[in-house]
Automatic annotation (TrEMBL):
Family as reported in the entry's similarity comment: Belongs to the metallo-dependent hydrolases superfamily. DHOase family. Class I DHOase subfamily.
Gene3D superfamilies given in the database record: Metal-dependent hydrolases (3.20.20.140), Urease, subunit C, domain 1 (2.30.40.10)
Protein's recorded name: Dihydroorotase
Cited PROSITE patterns: DIHYDROOROTASE_1, DIHYDROOROTASE_2
Binding-site positions, substrate: 67-69, 99, 283, 314, 328-329
Key words, A-Z: Hydrolase, Metal-binding, Pyrimidine biosynthesis, Zinc
One family name in Pfam for this protein: DHOase
Any single GO CC term annotated in Swiss-Prot or TrEMBL for this entry: cytoplasm
GO biological process: 'de novo' UMP biosynthetic process; purine nucleobase catabolic process
Reaction equations catalysed: (S)-dihydroorotate + H2O = N-carbamoyl-L-aspartate + H(+)
Cofactor(s) in the UniProt record: Zn(2+)
Pathway connected to this protein: Pyrimidine metabolism; UMP biosynthesis via de novo pathway; (S)-dihydroorotate from bicarbonate: step 3/3
Record EC number: 3.5.2.3
Organismal lineage: Bacteria, Pseudomonadati, Verrucomicrobiota, Methylacidiphilae, Methylacidiphilales
């Protein structure tokens, strides 16, 4: 037996979305990096006690849409800082987007990322590979070698493949290889120049619009291509009522389509832009109240199975410019859980089992990963959540180098106080968790 520390996480409220379990008080035992059955251990086994009374014990979360910014843009974020932010946010697995410099369109770049992750990452990281070379939408990237190098999915996130013929080939190729395509849906002929939702507010503010239909056209095209090719496609960061309607219909017809929504799109609307604050600028943009409600309804009824942050850090100086010139994107790893709790749980729309399924079982199914769980034998990737901890968002306290949060100053409830990966504590908040040796 290894000499690693073994833990007894005692008297917590255990929530396991895979098993649809919500029970308390439960003692959970961790040894050799896994969740274990204590009856297989001697009576006097030296468990280190972690008192979880009053806390929720959950499997570690998966965020399948994260920009780590390495290689190439370490001024915005690094693998180290992003994964520290993830750990503090309760996220034990992140999926890294390939729009780095250089982009992950070559197996060497995937290998470079994996090496850096081994050395510096605090949480588990799965890289993705590009759909097209340099994400230009013209020539397919070498899918097979990207996958062999460790890419878990293919995406040109941030740049939508405009040419339907290229997208069709990409789907045919991906379906043969059995990997999903993560699809950023944007018809750039329609969205070109747009910096916010096209509608009443863009007219009032005099800013160029990024219309809903630019998203919906590609959602519709790619559902048709999915039907034609049988490829597994995952629609990223959906924002419009029309996209949800198309998705719901595709699912009714049994197509292998899944989708994600982001916390900022379910928490905010386009009216947040009235002060021209670039912290509210992201792609796709904040939409209308009707759209926001449609996204929440789709989470509640199961049409959308994933919540992802689209964590997109930028350096402060890049965002401190006039609205139209600022880059798109907001950070989200450290506010993900609390914003979801606010919009879905505290607003009485979803229970905790269903909510956390969107951050565990949902993404694992899309990606073909082992579903996170607290059953015996599962890797001990878990978090302790203090549901009642109130806190105010202060980006200066973030581990992320990116301070571009749309939730600055917001009062939230719910904080992750301990994060464990493969049986090792990678992050803990000092003030809450007492720990003592039992002898
Ligand atoms: Zn995107």
């Amino acid at each position: 037996m290894k000499t690693e520390e073994a833990f007894c996480i005692s008297a917590g409220r255990l929530i396991d979305p895979l098993l649809r379990r919500d029970e308390e008080p439960v003692n959970l035992y961790v040894a050799e990096g896994k969740i274990v059955d204590p009856t297989n251990y001697p009576k006097d086994f030296p468990w280190t006690k972690i008192d979880a009374q009053g806390l929720i014990v959950l499997p570690g979360l998966i965020d399948m849409h994260v920009h780590l910014r390495e290689p190439g843009e370490s001024r915005k974020e690094t693998i180290r800082t992003a994964t520290m932010a993830a750990a503090a946010g309760g996220i034990t697995t992140v999926v890294a987007m390939p729009n780095t410099i250089p982009p992950a369109d070559h197996p060497d770049t995937i290998a470079w990322i994996r090496k850096k992750v081994d050395k510096e990452a605090l949480v588990k990281v799965y890289p993705t590979g590009c759909i097209t070379e340099e994400r230009l939408g013209e020539k397919l990237a070498p899918f097979q070698s990207l996958i062999q190098a460790g890419a878990i999915a293919l995406t040109d996130d941030g740049s939508c493949v405009q040419n339907a013929r290229i997208m069709r080939r990409a789907m045919e190729y991906a379906s043969v290889l059995g990997v999903p395509i993560l699809d950023h849906c944007e018809d750039t002929a329609l969205s070109d120049g747009g910096v916010m939702n096209e509608g009443l507010w863009s007219t009032l503010l005099g800013l160029p619009g990024w219309p809903s239909i630019a998203e919906e056209l590609i959602v519709s095209r790619d559902i048709l291509l999915c039907e034609k090719t049988g490829a597994k496609i995952h629609l990223q960061h959906l924002t419009t009522e029309g996209s949800i309607r198309l998705l719901r219909d595709a699912k009714k017809r049994g197509l292998p389509v899944s989708a994600e929504v982001c916390p900022h799109h379910i928490a905010l609307t386009e009216s947040a832009l009235k002060e021209y604050d670039p912290r509210f600028k992201m792609n796709p943009p904040l939409r209308t109240q009707k759209d926001r409600e449609a996204l929440i309804e789709a989470l509640v009824d199961g049409t959308v199975e994933v919540i992802a942050s689209d964590h997109a850090p930028h350096a402060l100086f890049e965002k401190e410019v006039e609205f139209e010139k600022a880059p798109f994107g907001v950070v989200g790893l450290e506010t993900l859980v609390a914003v979801c709790l606010k919009e879905l749980y505290y607003s009485k729309k979803m229970d905790l089992v269903d909510l956390f399924a969107k951050l565990t079982v949902g993404p694992s199914r899309v990606l073909g990963l082992e579903p996170p769980s607290l059953r015996y034998g599962s890797p001990a990737d878990l978090i302790l959540l203090d549901l009642n901890a109130s806190w105010k968002v202060d980006s200066n306290a973030f581990f992320s180098k990116g301070k571009n949060t749309p939730f600055e100053g917001m009062n939230l409830k719910g904080k992750v106080v301990l994060t464990m990966i493969d049986g090792k504590i990678v992050w803990r908040e000092k003030r809450v968790v007492g720990e003592q040796k039992t002898v």
